[in-house]
Amino acid sequence: MAVAAIIRSAIRLRGLRCPYSQCSTECYASAADELRRTADPGRTRLRVSNVGGRFYAGRVTTLRDPLVEPLGKRASDTFEKVLGLRTVGDLLRHYPRRYYTRGELTPLDSLREGDHVTVLARVALSSVIGPPGGAQQRGRGRGPVRRLEVIVTDGTGKLQLTFFAGVGFHAKQLQQGALALFAGTVSSFRGRRQLVHPEYELLPVSETDERLTTELAEEFASELIPVYPASAKLTSWTISKHIGAILDSFDAGEDPLPAQVRAQHKLWPRELALRAIHRPTDREELRHARRRLKWDEAFTMQAALAQRRHAAAAMPAVPRPPAEDGLAAAFDRRLPFTLTDGQREVGEVIARDLACAYPMNRLLQGEVGSGKTVVAVRAMLQVVDSGGQAALLAPTEVLAQQHYRSITTLLGPLGTAGQLGAGEQATRVALLTGSTGVRARRSTLSDVFTGDAGILIGTHALLEDQVQFADLGLVVIDEQHRFGVEQRDALREKAAGSRPHVLVMTATPIPRTVAMTVFGDLEISTLAELPAGRSPIATHVVPAAERPHYLDRAWQRVREEVAAGRQAYVVCPRIGDADDDGDGADTPGSGAAEPEVEAEEARRPPLAVLEVAPELAEGPLSGLRLGIMHGRLVPDEKERVMTAFAAGELDVLVSTTVIEVGVDVPNATVMVIMDAERFGVSQLHQLRGRVGRGREPGLCLLVTEAPPESPARERLAAVAGTGDGFQLSRLDLEQRREGDVLGSAQAGRRSSLKLLRLLADEDLIASAREAAGEVVAADPSLAAHPALKEAIDDFLGDRRAEFLDKA
């Protein structure tokens, strides 16, 4: 039985005031002292010592101690091998996933077979049956099995208890006259009701103190039993036993949450919460414990990010103020469209950031087609106006080339410095990818080194040592989730003598709490308004398996659009090489977790470009001009295909998800996504954003063979039901869960969040962010908060600390 339960029962009975409900650890100390003074040790069962105002038995362990110290080498090796737990803190943060109760006390005369019961009874008879010495003769005809049979009674009836293991131990415990609580499932043997190997708890109280006996019995019956995430080699019962041993002797140390934060938000002390989550006596106690431990996760992460923001603000950067009549102003004058209010507002915020003497670190997120590229170009031109250079890093050659084409088109003569007809204030835009030829590469490197190229667009090739800038002032990272920490850091380090400003862009809308948690060290700007002239996109689910004529109609719609002079995409999950499952950029869910595929869907391999394209050319789309695009085409072929499609020389492009972002062909109005259930929610939203980019309305058809009532169909129905990317991003997060979302952001490791849920705990995260910001602002190095500093170090670890240094 939990120590706290006995203490509370004794305190209630003796009329002592118990501050436990006000979550004060002094309750343990004062109650223990009182019990030691007044109670008979034979009646209380307490083996406690008051060390620093806390309960301990035996040697004190700390959260940082290796498990080998309290558990021994064999058990600690098992925990590390099976669950990856190395320290006392690791084990105590292996929280229960659920709880059950033993149940109400049941009179013996009302027991029914199959019931799980808890009974209070006294041992009437205890006898060991079978050969001595532990010999077991089961099933061999050489005598009975050695066992312990105990008869107990509560005055209303009798019950037999049977033990086949630990016979000697249980015989010593359950001697005639012992009073105990027994819990187990009622079975029947030879007409007798029995409990086989029941759990039991001896009650070392005298018969005269019946009130305390009843209190303790009720506590035992209603006690919450933790169930832990376990495995075949480490059962929940084993984990619970070892955690119980540690709870008897651990010291949580100084509380990492500052006292004012705990007081303001009415949070329990950490030690009390850690004990209560493993040994709660009621649901209210469990609620307090979970809330406090969620705060630990949220506050620690937000404090680390607040430190990161503070450190970034202290780093030197070259101010890049806007010029009154420079390139940026000339660019605005030649735009063929009017900027949205959102683009102007975000642009003004970025312009102010660039003018500061510390580096901008801003995340620009927005709906598909919201005009993020134009905002980025205006920022890059402001830096060029101030004498600096800008680099735009894209994850794929297709996207880099698309950016190069769209930006040079938007700039016109303003981006052709050194050429005939160039504008008076023109700069030069350069492209560098892995496929750039030797001569063009040499010319580009020279232009970048001398500063003649004000804007450099490229892929991972920008990260190579040979790429040296004259004055790198701004780094723009598109679809940042496609890049590793080291890659982003390598580009940022190319700014000599100071830190460049950084603008991170993502077309995947991010829920508020994900942004606060994953991108908490960035300032966040959002473009929710679509530019004028963008057409709506109708989305429909095409259930090909149950209604094949729907698929026939889908291909008919493609032909109708082509006949009207427009174009179409057909997207497949796989390329189709003999042993291919995708190639990174072409893998469904790239940059996002792929949803689980139901068993019936997994029987057939995903459809592939190299298989679907010829079938369409010979079947429903025969006579149309089809092109193929995927990540394994050589760069020149990719460029040729995309150029032909953009020029209207192809009617249909059969592609993988390589066209997911950045591809802008206004004449494309219809997209058919094959095996749509294989893609993530946000990815489907991204893909359909490739159509409807012109004056004609877009159409997206989600072809699936998933059963009507399956989770996959629910996902597709959600995508078809709304064009709100932020609403879909919440659904996506619910499916992907925090581990997937945070894993890529935290150096590829699994999420450290155990209890915190980014959607369910939005308000808590916001409060923790505000509180952490105040603490760090007052004490950036956390010199006055060593326990919090230690908690941050434990939370981040070596790799996460490196991540935050580079992010």
Helix and strand topology:
Blueprint: H1 3-14, H2 26-38, H3 41-44, E1 49-51, E2 54-56, E3 61-62, H4 68-71, H5 73-83, H6 88-92, E4 98-101, E5 116-129, E6 147-153, E7 158-163, H7 167-173, E8 179-189, E9 192-196, E10 199-202, H8 210-222, E11 224-227, H9 236-247, E12 250-251, H10 259-265, H11 270-278, H12 283-314, H13 327-334, H14 341-354, E13 361-366, H15 372-385, E14 389-393, H16 397-411, E15 428-432, H17 438-450, E16 453-458, E17 472-478, H18 485-492, E18 501-506, H19 512-518, E19 523-527, E20 537-543, H20 548-563, E21 567-571, H21 599-602, H22 609-618, E22 626-629, H23 635-646, E23 652-655, E24 668-673, H24 681-688, E25 698-704, H25 711-721, H26 725-743, H27 762-778, H28 786-806
Parallel strand pairs: 3-12, 7-9, 13-18, 13-19, 14-16, 14-17, 15-16, 17-18, 20-25, 21-23, 21-24, 22-23, 24-25
Antiparallel strand pairs: 1-2, 4-11, 5-6, 5-8, 6-7, 8-9, 8-10
Helix pairs in contact: 1-2, 1-8, 11-12, 12-27, 12-28, 13-15, 14-15, 19-27
Question: Could you explain how this protein is built, in words?
Answer:
The protein has 807 residues and is α/β, with parallel strands linked by helices. It has 28 helices and 25 strands. Strands 15-16-14-17-18-13-19 form a 7-stranded parallel beta sheet, sandwiched between helices. Strands 20-25-24-21-23-22 form a 6-stranded parallel beta sheet, with helices on both faces. Helix 1 (3-14) packs across helix 2, helix 11 (270-278) packs across helix 12 (283-314) and helix 13 runs antiparallel to helix 15 (372-385). It is elongated and about 110 Å long. It starts with a helix and ends with a helix. Residues 6-58, 135-141, 581-602, 743-750 and 801-807 have low confidence and may be disordered.
